[in-house]
Amino acid sequence: MTTCQLIVDSPVDELTLVGDDIALHAVYFAEHRHAPVRDRLGAPVRRGEAPGVLTAAADQLAEYFAGERTDFELPLAPAGTTFQRRVWDGLHAIPYGRTRSYGELATALGVTGAARAVGMANGRNPLSIVVPCHRVIGADGSLSGYGGGVQRKQALLDLERRVAGLSLW
Question: How many C-beta atoms lie closer than 10 Å to residue 141's C-beta?
Answer without folding.
Answer: 10
